[in-house]
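Appendix B. One record, verbatim.
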Amino acid sequence: MRYADPLAPRATLLREGSADLSGYIDGRIDHCKAIDPTIRAFVDEPNRGRRVRSAASALVERDRPAAERPALHGIPIGVKDVFHVDGLPTKAGSTLPAAVLGGPEAPVVTALTNAGAIVFGKTVTTEFAHFEPGPTRNPEALERTPGGSSSGSAAAVAAGMVPLALGSQTIGSVIRPAAFCGVVGFKPTFGRVPTDGMVTLSTSADQVGWFTQDVDGAALVAACCVADWQALTTPQQQPTLGVPVGSYLDQAAATGREAFSDHVDRLVAAGYTVVRADPFTAIERVNNRHRRVVAAEAARAHDEWIRSYGDRYAASTQALIERGQRVSVRALAGARRSQIALRDRLSGRMETTGIDLWITPAAPGPAPRGIGTTGDPVMNLPWTHAGLPAITVPAGSVNGAPLGLQLVGRFGADESVVAWARGIERALSNR
């Protein structure tokens, strides 16, 4: 069900007036009507077409010269239903009353609409961005999960319903679904994009991200959403790539490791230098600490809601909160300190080995069959724990199921990660 609509060239066409905005929006509405009953990427919204057409008409009516149009002029976007959007309810994939979960519009949404984007609709999320799946299917392999928790956003972009969708990541909720659906997913460094206006799961781990079909599109969004973004305009020297061997890589399935080995070989053939190193002395300890942070902070964030609406929570979310309630203040503080310690350790490891960019499988393997699970985020977890910038680029497929390659850079080096991802995207697309 793929429909090619990469963001960067589409944005150029709309900004320059080379594409008719109203006609384009009509086409996206019709496309969504045709396939979303199967994909179910978007939260149901009565009169979506009327609202979106009205927003597009308003842009046309206040038209300005091409040189003055903002970067995302007329681009329809999906917004994961954990972000507040003025005029649309927020349910966060739950059955709680929208009035309970409401709040001011998320600054990242405002930044995108100020850049000319049109909110096409809310996208499906797992309940409270945890593990309870929604109804969304994978456009590239309908019998497989699209991943989570940003399932609707990844699927909407993969199916070409919108060229851009917002997501969030607390463990692997941008990088993994992007890989499963065969698109680009970018999660900046922790804190570079504000999480205000989101339904919180974990204050120390929640991070904003987005999905596009192209790395250039991901960079275009970053320039709109990251206040101090400094685009790298000069050609970047090829980075030295780090392959994290040992217990971390052992967590991937055999099919995932085999595909990853092929990806590494292709990058070496393209001229990249690869260094193998083991950055994690005890990966299970890292995994447990991150899970402790998420559970404990989820329990605190949901304390009032679960007291009043506990019977409306899915069993898996209730279990998360119950685990978090058993985490002491001291244990939580220690787990939070481990985030900084891991960040520093990874930075030091990169310095001593000369590694510029880690490359890893974006998931243990291709998307699991069925939509009763969202897959395992274990390949994303330690990098999220450290708050490092990460991006997924499409990397072929296994038996028709997409694969992605995860690229992870130094804390705060988001611009370099994106710039380097362009070359890796090209290298992996050349057969």
